[in-house]
Amino acid sequence: MTSQRTRDRLIQRLYDEGLSDPNVLEVIRRTPRHLFVDEALAHRAYEDTALPIGHNQTISQPYMVGRMTELLLAGGPLDKVMEIGTGSGYQTAVLAQLVERVFSVERIQALQEKAKDRLVELNIRNVVFRWGDGWEGWPALAPYNGIIVTAAATNVPQALLDQLAPGGRLVIPVGAGEVQQLLLIVREDSGFTRHILDAVRFVPLLNGPVV
User: Distance from the CA of 123 to the CA of which of 30, 60, 189, 197 falls in 20 to 30 A?
Assistant: First the structure.
């Protein structure tokens, strides 16, 4: 179930569902998603579905990974991206192959340590990790040209807006419970423009780091 034919079927499905950036699709095609899930779920790795990764977290469905990545890159090449929610490291791995540097923040240390090992295994070296509270971002290294958030916030964290560079793009799911919307926020000279996009379902963005 990890054959090239299986991966090709997934890419065709993502294309049919509306993903169109050939670079994003090619990176998803060649990134071994089965390495980012437990071995017992590896046979489902190339289904377009979210899967559990422990700690009440999930690996996002490939379509959503592609969709959020396309939104982030739609303004042009990015050299410095912050990811809130390392999780399994799958979104991190996809991003890292498309931008110059990724700075990834995760509150669950055990998950992030596994993600680090997977990226080393794949020889992905342009990612720096921080164990901390995603609501706070990573202010010491700000500003960022792009910020991607892989959990749903009840509101847009002010800290993330503050850390966005002029012209930068923030992709974030916002909402509580079943009602969540994917937002694209762009920092303009005159302030922030917000675009409400898809209805989505993500795990909540929680406060405070845990081991």
Answer: 60
CB atoms within 10 A of CB 158: 10
Residues with catalytic function? 60
Convert the pLDDT of each residue in 1-18 to its tens digit.
567 888 999 999 999 999
Tokens 């921080």 belong to 130
pLDDT above 70 (res 121): yes
Q: How crowded is residue 136: how many other Cβ atoms within 10 Å of its Cβ?
A: 16
Q: Which residue has the tokens 């060649």?
A: 30
Residues 6+ apart with CB under 8 A from 84: 105, 134, 137, 147, 148, 149, 150, 151, 160, 205
Cis status, amide bond into 157, omega within 30 of 0: no
* Closest listed residue to residue 205, CA positions, set 138, 140, 132, 110: 132
- Of 182, 180, 186, 119, nearest to 147 by C-alpha is 186
Other residues' Cβ atoms within 10 Å of the Cβ of residue 109: 14
pLDDT in tens, 43-63: 999 999 999 998 989 999 999
Distances (CA, A) of 43 to 34, 105, 151, 190, 191: 8, 29, 25, 49, 46
H helices then E strands: how many in the chain? 6, 9
